[in-house]
Design goal:
Blueprint (H helix, E strand, L loop, with lengths): L1 H18 L6 H21 L3 H7 L3 H8 L9 E4 L4 E5 L8 E6 L3 E8 L2 E6 L2 E6 L3 E3 H11 L1 E6 L3 E5 L8 E6 L3 E8 L2 E6 L2 E6 L3 E6 L4 E2 L11 H11 L11 E2 L3 E2 L1 H10 L9 H4 L4 E3 L9 E6 L2 E10 L2 E7 L3 E6 L7 E4 L4
Antiparallel strand pairs: 1-4, 1-7, 2-3, 3-15, 4-5, 5-6, 8-11, 8-14, 9-10, 11-12, 12-13, 16-17, 18-23, 19-20, 19-23, 20-21, 21-22
Helix pairs in contact: 1-2, 2-3
Length: 349
């Protein structure tokens, strides 16, 4: 059966190749097809490998070019076609343990299929998703072209981020090696980037720029250390379930959209703690602690121009969860993706 399919591919490919050459007349095309078909038939008698058959009739190179095409680093691209998050499970079952979350328009490599499930890998997460919620093939490729992000990866130990594209401008923050920043525009020796919901500038000499698609967030349990209260662990787990939901300036909805302080306000409200809707005001509540001594549930504050302008919830293991920007929404980041100005402790130990 597979050889009949190969013959079909061979003949169709020959037709396409030949008919695109206007100088070849119909008689030549016909005789060439007969010759190639005869060669394919002979190959079927002597070869068992499909690739050998294709090579014998001179069309393998055409097919291999198509097979080897990658889309932003993915060979068999899948795109999550959901509004919130698509659960990645350890097994191909609805009660399988959730090992990761793929946000809407997040990308994955499709490995194979098992009934109504797709076996995928995305970022550090591998598992199964319901294939009905995946775009595949040309639909995935088209969506990827629409949503791909241009990212600048820091290639120096510490990169200065400035308010304007010149070395006389104020340093907004410092960003560590390996951190990724969303590119707004390239302008000569400077790159305009998004730092949370505000624009800033970095030198093009100290970053590499690539087009990337969002990938899954791991749900592997974080290491919290000794003496961390149950409420802290619970608060962090609660906050993480909203990763992938939208950023909305002035918003306080964990599902429909919140800004950075609105996200913190709403998460803490579940635990009976009332906070103001302003990162600057929130930075005056609780007790100041050293960033290196931070516990899950502590708040990391960041500044621009000497004033607090962003807040995130520390979730342990050097990471924070926060409502970052209109494009990235609620996400998990390195706690030191920007230099924190102050860390405040509101929850009891």
């Amino acid at each position: 059966m597979k050889y009949k399919k190969v013959m079909g591919v061979v003949l169709c490919t020959i037709c396409v190749v030949l008919t695109t050459r206007s100088e070849v007349d119909a008689t030549t095309i016909s005789s060439t097809i007969e010759m190639k078909a005869a060669g394919a038939a002979e190959a079927l008698e002597t070869k068992t490998d499909v690739n050998d058959i294709l090579k014998s009739v001179g069309v393998a190179e055409v097919l291999n070019d198509e097979q080897e095409e990658t889309i932003f680093g993915f060979e068999n691209l899948g795109i999550a076609d959901v509004e919130g998050n698509l659960n990645i499970r350890a097994t191909a079952a609805e009660d399988g343990k959730i090992v990761g979350k793929l946000s809407g328009n997040g990308a994955c490599e499709i490995i194979d299929f098992k009934d109504k499930w797709a076996h995928v890998k995305s970022g550090k997460v591998e598992g199964y998703v319901a294939k009905d919620y995946l775009l595949m093939g040309q639909l995935a490729k088209a969506r990827a072209q629409e949503i791909v992000n241009k990212m600048a990866t820091v290639t120096t130990d510490t990169l200065k981020v400035r308010g304007e594209p010149n070395t006389d401008s104020e340093v907004v923050t410092l960003v560590p090696n390996g951190e990724e920043l969303e590119v707004v525009k390239e302008n000569g020796g400077w790159v305009e980037v998004m730092i949370d919901d505000e624009n800033a500038y970095i030198s093009a000499d100290y970053v590499s720029i690539d087009e990337k698609l969002d990938t899954a967030v791991t749900m592997t349990e974080l290491l919290y250390g000794n003496g961390v209260s149950d409420v802290r662990v619970d608060l962090c787990q609660y906050a993480k379930q909203f990763v992938g939901n939208p950023y909305v300036w002035g918003g306080v909805s964990l599902t429909k959209g919140a800004d950075c302080s609105g996200f913190v306000l709403s998460v803490f409200a579940k635990y009976g703690i009332s906070l103001p809707h302003s990162s600057r005001a929130q930075a005056n509540i609780g007790t100041k602690v050293n960033a290196l001594s931070a516990q899950p549930g502590d708040l990391f504050f960041y500044s621009k121009g000497g004033g607090i302008n962003h807040v995130a919830i520390y979730i342990g293991n050097g990471q924070v969860v926060h409502a970052s920007s209109p494009k990235t929404g609620i996400r998990i980041s390195n706690a030191f993706y920007r230099t924190p100005t102050v860390v405040r402790r509101i929850l009891p130990n």
